[in-house]
Amino acid sequence: MEKFLCAVQNENGVENDMATLCKWVREDLFYVVIHDLKIENDQTMSEDGSLCASFVKCFLERENRSLIVNADIHGASDDEMKAYLKHLWTKGLSRESKGKGNIRKNLSMEKTAVYAAINDAFRSKSPQFLLDAT
Amino acid sequence: MKIRLTCVHHEALMIDCIVHDVPFPAYETFDHRQNLPRRFFLFFDKLFRAGRHNKELWSAAITRNKGRNNISFGTCIFEAHVRTTIQENYFAWMYQALANPKIIQILEKADDFKTEYDYDVLPDELACSCPLISHFPSSCEFRYNTARKGFEKVMITEQTEMEAVQLVQRQYLQNIVDKNKEKRRETLKILRTMVDDVRPRFQYYNREERNDFNLSAKRTFKLFLTTYKENVNETTTPPTKKRKKASPNTKKCRVSDEKLDIFKAVQIQILREKQSGLRLAWEKLYKQIVYSLVVNNADSDAATHKAEDFLLELEELDNNWRRSQLLVNNEIQELNDESLNIEEERIETI
What we know:
The complex is a heterodimer of chains A (about 130) and B (about 350).
Chain A: H1 2-9, H2 11-27, H3 50-60, H4 62-65, H5 78-93, H6 103-123
Chain B: H1 13-19, H2 37-52, H3 55-63, H4 76-99, E1 140-145, E2 150-155, H5 159-202, H6 207-221, H7 257-276, H8 278-303, H9 307-349
Helix pairs in contact in B: 2-4, 4-5, 4-6, 4-7
């Protein structure tokens, strides 16, 4: 677990990978779980839940591994990588990670973005010059 | 009322309906993929696409292998989310747009804005059949074949058959509107009174008043309300005691039970459509229609010069003229300043 321990201590690396996690949450995860509407069992969000499992599975795949940029975890075994990915997930759920790195926050932000986009398409924020009446 | 053609480029549904003088679609009609493909296309192409807001995915699904691919536009849960969001905010958004003269300028009074609920018999042209609003081809209709699990095209050449399909779909639409219109008309009546009251004053509102306006829109017209902030009747006073903010770790859900029920029902319906193959057939049809449109547009763009292009060019020219006029004005100002300086210097030397 040497590589895992080094990777966890590499703050810059972890921060960059948190950005990757959040991108995945907003671009992929949100579209399969509208989390606010499924809150009755919050277990799904936990480290042992299905969402974390999908995240780990996704980034263990060879083509996605390169998206994890922390240099200290490169070349690590699957178990170490799995532990590192779980660490990222737990960090994303913790209260300390406010704003950008927070999974719940990102789900909520994506939801707001979707709401705003539908709202615009429904009623529009048209610039004044588009409509002209005489 | 004279409208500049530039509006043709604009895609927002409410403005489009006002500009092209068609009633705004009833939201219950957005749910019928199988029986109202023309109407569902409108929902899918305008609102669902906007909600998905992933241009790359959208264009890949349409163009990759000429639309013959398995890329899905969105999951069932997401489609249910979009539908529920529209249903929830339908009247609130309408009120916010109509009351704000910056969003909809051309309205003299709220009664000028018509929805399908306002008609006992729907007019001939609707939003989904208006070629300037919807890209759905007007030369054909589609109907779902349950046995083949696919949409069949009925061409304009098969006139009687096409008319029959149109008649069935129109009747279906009319039934949905008839079923809901009484209740919705009551809401629309309140909405119009409020719009006529607020609209003349809206531009003078400060930030606080605008916030109050948005809150009142939610209170009056948002469909599913159970949270303590929103569900306040006029007769009751809001709770004064400050409540503790719910922790994200608690299992309490922030949305109302009613919304959850509706969401669940919509999701189950979409899942059924997926299992029966209807959803896949729809996506195939959508890709086919939009791909042919993309190809046609690419051809016509190269060959022809449209009226809208000309107007855009005019607008650009107008902007350029303004810019150049500004430059000229600046130069004149500079020259004036210079001559003034010279004059001052001359006076000083004298």
